[in-house]
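Please discuss these two lines.
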Amino acid sequence: MSLNKSWYTIDEAISKFGVSARQLQEWVDHGVVRAEEGEGGEIMLNGDDIGQELRLIPSV
């Protein structure tokens, strides 16, 4: 079990990972980042999935 936070709201994910909402939505739409409804109906994104996608992006 991870002791780190692994699910983030969209705003938290944007702030933590420096990724745009548009990019996050694209990853969710393509099924590479898991998303689920959290308490209160807010969408939560899996931080491990986001981190994995960021590692796959080649450095410029």
In short: Residues 7-56 form one domain. The CA atoms of residues 8 and 45 lie 5 Å apart. The helical segments are 10-17, 21-29, 47-56. Residues 47-56 form the longest helix (10 residues).
